[in-house]
Amino acid sequence: MASSKRELFLKRRMRVRNKLRAVNAGRLRLSVHRSSKNISVQLIDDVAGVTVAAASTLEKELGYVGKNNIEAASKIGATIAERAKAAGVSEAYFDRGGFVYHGKIKALADAAREAGLKI
């Protein structure tokens, strides 16, 4: 039976998350969500069930840069790294969700690494 695009996305997201949880127990999770217009990222402590830091293009100062959202994703990556440092976090594991690791997702991860967050 053919599954819908959404069902396949959800299966891929859970497959990625479960593999990462098995390997990275005890570390915080850097979770990314991407839509056609915006990108958001959260630093989540799964043990306590708390979001430690977050950044999104929906924030006024981090908003939409132009047609090329890769620039916005880079800005979000640098911002989340700064906010993580302010919260006392130096390393996390990167949860790309069901999204393919290229384009905006890759730009966000690279910018976070350059800003000093170990992922």
Automatic annotation (TrEMBL):
<keyword id="KW-0687">Ribonucleoprotein</keyword>
<keyword id="KW-0694">RNA-binding</keyword>
<dbReference type="GO" id="GO:0006412">
    <property type="term" value="P:translation"/>
</dbReference>
<keyword id="KW-0689">Ribosomal protein</keyword>
<comment type="subunit">
    <text>Part of the 50S ribosomal subunit; part of the 5S rRNA/L5/L18/L25 subcomplex. Contacts the 5S and 23S rRNAs.</text>
</comment>
<protein>
    <recommendedName>
        <fullName>Large ribosomal subunit protein uL18</fullName>
    </recommendedName>
</protein>
<dbReference type="GO" id="GO:0003735">
    <property type="term" value="F:structural constituent of ribosome"/>
</dbReference>
<dbReference type="InterPro" id="IPR057268">
    <property type="entry name" value="Ribosomal_L18"/>
</dbReference>
<comment type="similarity">
    <text>Belongs to the universal ribosomal protein uL18 family.</text>
</comment>
<comment type="function">
    <text>This is one of the proteins that bind and probably mediate the attachment of the 5S RNA into the large ribosomal subunit, where it forms part of the central protuberance.</text>
</comment>
<dbReference type="GO" id="GO:0008097">
    <property type="term" value="F:5S rRNA binding"/>
</dbReference>
<dbReference type="InterPro" id="IPR005484">
    <property type="entry name" value="Ribosomal_uL18_bac/plant/anim"/>
</dbReference>
<dbReference type="InterPro" id="IPR004389">
    <property type="entry name" value="Ribosomal_uL18_bac-type"/>
</dbReference>
<keyword id="KW-0699">rRNA-binding</keyword>
<dbReference type="Pfam" id="PF00861">
    <property type="entry name" value="Ribosomal_L18p"/>
</dbReference>
<dbReference type="GO" id="GO:0022625">
    <property type="term" value="C:cytosolic large ribosomal subunit"/>
</dbReference>
